[in-house]
Here is the input.
Amino acid sequence: MKLVDLFENKIIDLWHLGQEAAVNNDYKKAIILMKQSYNNEDLQWNDYVSATIAFLLNDKQSFEKYLGKKPNYNEKTIERLCKNWGKPYKTAY
Here is the structure.
């Protein structure tokens, strides 16, 4: 396995651990893990991470920076979080 693949796997693993924490309403832990999943090579991914963290922080102003920002392969998920603003991540996701 190449070093790049190991790095990308780590990012995805951290993201999924963060999602698991968020689903279990441990937003503090989720945010710590999700922040570690930023990827300098993928700005769309970083926008998705930032939007999700803003959702968990209930920071609508920051969240709206990423709403409708194109292109983003996670656009549907960002829109779903917006439609379910104020609900637990487990429900909104």
Observations:
- Helices lie at 3-23, 27-35, 43-56, 60-64, 75-83, 89-92.
- The mean pLDDT is 92.
